[in-house]
């Protein structure tokens, strides 16, 4: 399964694409979508959507994970992040991808083992879990961490479905 992970941001959105085969993960690509801070909001949102559509066309993922919005002390920043995230989710939905949404603390806990992990710890674990990866920036590392989290959740869900189908099969 090919998974894309996104770390949304209006100025910089990180993205990472991995392949998940059972418990084995491998890196495919990662990068950052940058928008012009001087451009109008609508133009910046169009840039995010169009660049993500290009990435989706190139890598053809089967599923997507995206980080949830955290409430910032600055309401304007939170609103702008929400708008960027909404445009990204629309592009994913238009591509027909199932989308998993993950809180930042849940991503940190899944990848590093603690919800209070810092950026350096996340990058270290991403490099450990995806040997040979060349990370293009902190946002891309976070996006790869989201993809890894999504892969783990997908594997857990598949295992649970298998167990439940066996239990239901015996009960019938």
List keywords for this structure.
alpha/beta; 5 strands; 5 helices; Nucleotidyltransferase, domain 5; single chain; 5-stranded mixed beta sheet; globular; 172 residues; 53% helix
Sum this structure up briefly:
The protein is an alpha/beta fold. Helix content is 53%, strand content 21%.
Walkthrough of the structure:
This protein has 172 residues and is of the alpha/beta class. The protein has one domain (2-171): Nucleotidyltransferase, domain 5. It has helices at 41-59, 75-94, 104-111, 119-129, 138-171, and strands at 2-7, 12-21, 24-34, 63-67, 99-102. Strands 3-2-1-4-5 form a 5-stranded mixed β-sheet. The longest helix is centred in the last third of the chain and has 34 residues, at 138-171. The protein is globular and about 50 Å long. It starts with a strand and ends with a helix. The model has no long low-confidence stretch (mean pLDDT 91).
Strand and helix layout:
Elements: E1 2-7, E2 12-21, E3 24-34, H1 41-59, E4 63-67, H2 75-94, E5 99-102, H3 104-111, H4 119-129, H5 138-171
Parallel strand pairs: 1-4, 4-5
Antiparallel strand pairs: 1-2, 2-3
Helix pairs in contact: 1-2, 3-5, 4-5
